[in-house]
């Protein structure tokens, strides 16, 4: 039986979704790792270890104990006064709901500057934060919540890059997933006769210009588009290149789905303020097409760090086409061997064991197994062959 949880776009109301998500996630396989399960609820579980850390980072930034790691919504990095204005309003808002205590107005050079303290137990209490901001006007309430989520997204992304993010069974998504050749048997268990098999897949995550244009046209045809829907170009160059995206408003007011030429639709939606701060809307479809097709082509064999990336072909960040190696079949008896082989890798992100699930787009063949980083394939296969020799 399907149940629905409805809430408005007020930031504080996300606490209801957070409570439900946290309870359901405690059921484990019912929400993840089971083929009957729906999408992961982690996107709504703000009261996680990363959520607590994000709240602490945000509070320290607002109290001017540290620099905020992201530009607050509605502010511009090119106009520091907008950030300072937000901090003043945010601090006053937190005073009004009792999160900032013992507040005083400064004198002398700090005249009119609000100061106070947040007690230690509140610094990481996400539930209290979401509950208290419900009493704030919608504008500052949503700006505080958007800032919290932006910091949370940054922390999670950094953890993912560093290989420290534990996300259970991960569904690897792409527009095209194809199995390369015949799976290779790399180990046979002498007791059961069961085999461990190496599958090699080719993934293409990109979105062609034609597909992106069709997505926008269908949105406009259905009368669901907003004035801010369309193609955008980054205001700043990154590693010598400007980047192009398609943005269209999602069901959550003020939030935009982002589609990129190289990696398709982003999991994270972007607030309108952030979109306008980082990108400019393109009125010329020809310029949008040229930039989109160029980025689509370049990303087929090259990561977003450019041709001089230190990791070379092993880096897949922002690369459209990837080769993915997965060990399937009998895994538990050789788990320790695989873990030991991965521990020899230089990069932290390549040392962790990850369980992934893929489904080929041509024949819908589904494989669940251990992801083996490309740089570690040779080491893993050598260790498995050594174990096989001992068993024989």
From TrEMBL:
GO terms for biological process: regulation of DNA-templated transcription. GO terms for molecular function: chromatin DNA binding; histone binding. InterPro entries: SBNO_a/b_dom, SBNO_Helicase_C_dom, SNO. GO terms for cellular component: nucleus. Residues 208-320 form the SBNO alpha/beta domain. Residues 5-171 form the Strawberry notch helicase C domain. This is Strawberry notch helicase C domain-containing protein. The lineage of its organism: Eukaryota, Viridiplantae, Streptophyta, Embryophyta, Tracheophyta.
């Amino acid at each position: 039986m399907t149940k629905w949880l409805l809430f408005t776009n007020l930031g504080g109301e996300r606490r209801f979704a957070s409570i439900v998500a946290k309870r359901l996630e405690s059921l484990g396989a019912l929400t993840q790792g089971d083929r009957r399960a729906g999408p992961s609820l982690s996107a709504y579980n703000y009261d996680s270890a990363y959520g607590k850390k994000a709240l602490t980072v945000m509070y320290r930034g607002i109290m001017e104990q540290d620099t905020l790691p992201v530009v607050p919504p509605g502010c511009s990095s090119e106009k520091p006064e907008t950030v300072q204005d937000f901090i003043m309003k945010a601090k006053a808002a937190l005073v009004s709901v009792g999160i900032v205590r013992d507040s005083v107005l400064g004198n002398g050079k700090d005249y009119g500057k609000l100061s106070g303290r947040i007690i230690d137990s509140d610094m990481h209490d996400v539930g209290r934060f979401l509950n208290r901001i419900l009493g704030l006007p919608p504008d500052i309430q949503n700006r505080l919540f958007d800032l919290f989520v932006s910091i949370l997204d940054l922390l999670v992304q950094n953890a993912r890059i560093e290989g420290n993010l534990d996300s259970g069974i991960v569904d690897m998504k792409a527009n095209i997933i194809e199995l390369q050749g015949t799976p290779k048997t790399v180990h046979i268990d002498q007791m059961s006769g069961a085999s461990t098999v190496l599958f090699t897949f080719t993934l293409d995550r990109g979105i062609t210009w034609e597909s992106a244009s069709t997505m926008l046209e269908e949105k406009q045809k259905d009368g669901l588009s907003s004035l801010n829907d369309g193609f955008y170009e980054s205001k700043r160059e990154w590693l010598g290149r400007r980047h192009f995206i398609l943005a269209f408003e999602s069901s959550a007011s003020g939030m935009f789905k982002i589609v990129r030429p190289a990696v398709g639709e982003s999991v994270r939606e972007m607030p309108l303020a952030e979109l306008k701060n980082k990108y400019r809307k393109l009125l010329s479809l020809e310029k949008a097409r040229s930039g989109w097709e160029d980025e689509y082509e370049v990303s087929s064999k090259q990561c977003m760090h450019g041709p001089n990336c230190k990791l070379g072909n092993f880096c897949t960040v922002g690369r459209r086409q990837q080769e993915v190696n997965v060990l399937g079949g009998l895994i538990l008896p050789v788990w320790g061997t695989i873990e030991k082989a991965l521990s020899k890798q230089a990069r932290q992100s390549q040392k962790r064991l990850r369980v992934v699930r893929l489904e080929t787009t041509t024949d819908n063949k589904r494989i669940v197994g251990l992801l083996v980083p490309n740089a570690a394939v040779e080491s893993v296969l050598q260790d498995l062959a050594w174990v096989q020799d001992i068993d024989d």
